[in-house]
Amino acid sequence: MYLETAGRCLDRPAPGEAVTGALRRSAETSPAATVVAEKGKAAMFDDDDRLESARMLAESGSRAAGAEAYRSIAVDSSVGEDVRLEAARGLAEVDERSAAEAYRSIAVDSSVGEDVRSEAARGLAEVS
Fold it and tell me: Which of 60, 74, 75, 126 has the greatest count of CB atoms below 10 A from its CB?
């Protein structure tokens, strides 16, 4: 639905609304695009969409982009704790060094539940 909406917005911008060529190319060529043009503003997808985008980037051969996407989710304290942990696990598959940082940030975050913090500590031990 999001990419379909992005396609409609990018193909037919409303009068007076400019859509950059880079954003148009990104949405047309990348199923993992994380922003859509909506009335001239960027709208972020939800946490699960971001995680799926990271997964798709990592699997499509763009490991560096996938790793950065996973990392940005895992260290973002505004993201749900289970999604953060899943992002750290995905990151461990493409970049163990960055995964250690991600696991560490979850393990020491007092706003995260004890079970998730324990899982993050176990993940940290596995990649260290």
Answer: 74
One domain for residues 21 and 77: no
Q: Is 61 helix (H, G, I), strand (E, B) or coil?
A: coil
Encoded amino acid at 5, one letter: T
Least confident of 10-24, 52-66, 105-119: 10-24
Check whether residue 71 and residue 21 sit in a common domain.
no
Same structural domain, 11 and 54 = no
What does the alpha-carbon distance between residue 72 and residue 66 come to, in Å, rounded to a whole number? 10
For residues 89 and 91, give the distance between their C-alpha atoms in angstroms, rounded to a whole number.
Answer: 5
Neighbours of 96 (CB within 10 A): 13
Hey, what amino acid is at 88? A
Q: What is the pLDDT of residue 44?
A: 57
d(CA 51, CA 67): 11
Task: Give the single-character DSSP code of 36.
Answer: E
pLDDT, tens digit, 9 for 90 and up, residues 24-79: 333 434 444 434 334 444 455 689 999 999 999 999 988 899 999 999 999 999 99
CB atoms near residue 59 (< 10 Å): 14
